Amino acid sequence: MTPITEVAGRRLALSNLDKVIHPVTGTTKGEILHYYATVAEALVPHTANRPVSFLRYPDGPDGQLFFTKNPPPGTPSWVRTVPVPHSDDPRARQVVVEDLPSLMWAANLVVEFHTPQWQADAPAVADRMVFDLDPGAPAGVPECCRAALWLRERLAADGLAAYAKTSGSKGLHLLVPLEPTPSEEVSAYARGLAVEGEAELPQLMLHRMKRSLRPGKVFVDHSQNAAAKTTAAAYTLRARPEPAASTPVTWEEVEHGREGGKLAFVLGDIADRLARHGDLLAPLLDPGRAGRLPGKAG
């Protein structure tokens, strides 16, 4: 029998709690649900009012993985959905994870959480910019950190503040809070910085996605600023053999990572980090921290 539990007044059926999802560590679905309940206060503000896409991996990272934007069958009526029309389906809607019950309902499906850089009530108007730093072997964490530190300085020269998190996979994400700006303008600016980085540090940074160019370099993926693209949300677990979490990090940790220091975290690390640092991405939620792209009128 599937156990029924109550979460903040909502009844949820939580299934297969003993099922191992992350085989390297033997992490069960029940432990995953406990993790999300523990980090909800930090995670939910970063998904609230944003349409969420799910990468589902119900049988673990070695099973079937499928990406979905539509609300899954059986989505409860109390889970908020918002219209996200597109050419293939002008009536399309997506889920918004805006509270603990909707987070736990979604986590029970075993998913990665991905969000766009805009909010549901302002489609294609970005309130943040993202750079996804993806290393091509043999490049790794030190090279990603070098690229991140260059971008941080270059953004600061334009009056923009950057905040870092691990991707939960191989690389780093840099996030920049912005005053509401059309996504195409953010995309153009981000691409320009990636091109500039490659020109200044051609042995380190790459702005083109072509696989043959990637070995030993860091691909500065600026494309996730396009209105139709999404990025792994802060604190989401990833579909990997170990329960890796996309984890906010300090710039001191990035500097340490440049010298070869550890910069990877799993679900058991996050509660202690939140107790020690709080939410390092909280500035993204503060309109007073939002920057303006160069050339934008005040």
From TrEMBL:
Could you state a single Gene Ontology molecular function term? DNA ligase (ATP) activity
| Keywords from the named record | Ligase
UniProt keyword NADP present? no
Span of domain DNA ligase D polymerase:
28-280
Keyword Ligase among UniProt keywords: yes
Q: Please give one Pfam family short name.
A: LigD_Prim-Pol
Q: What InterPro entries does the database record attribute to this sequence?
A: LigD_pol_dom (IPR014145), NHEJ_LigD (IPR052171)
Entry EC no(s): 6.5.1.1
**Family matches, as NCBIfam families:** ligD_pol
Name of the protein described by the UniProt record: Non-homologous end-joining DNA ligase
Species whose genome carries this gene: Streptomyces chengmaiensis
Taxonomy of the source species: Bacteria, Bacillati, Actinomycetota, Actinomycetes, Kitasatosporales
